[in-house]
Amino acid sequence: MYSKKVIEHFQNPKNMGKMKNPxxxxxxxxxxxxxxxxxxxxxxxGRIKDISFxxxxxxxxxxxxxxITDMAKGKTLAQAMKISYNDVAEKLGRLPPIKMHCADLxxxxxQKAIKNYGCTxxxxx
Length: 125
What we know:
The protein is α+β, with helices and mostly antiparallel strands. 44% of the residues lie in helices and 20% in strands. The chain is globular. The model has no long low-confidence stretch (mean pLDDT 94).
């Protein structure tokens, strides 16, 4: 059902945990399945210097949260905003169609964090 990469990110999630003094935080959820993702970012010179997450959810929710942090770390805010849910799913090998909403949720969390960061600065991203 799940790819080896999905299981790997579920069993050994990267960048997991609450971040101290983040520049921005975003929380998103899916009321139908109950998944809740909280994403933290630190930005330096327009790049995501550090990123972490806290997720309550299924295997796919935790795996996509881990993967989005890997994909976004080190990217400019503009580059990170362009990551799509298909990009996340592709990097994980595959997700069952019924779990694609988890990849979408992880992207929404990242985009919301970046927008929240933009709201605290005079710059627009």
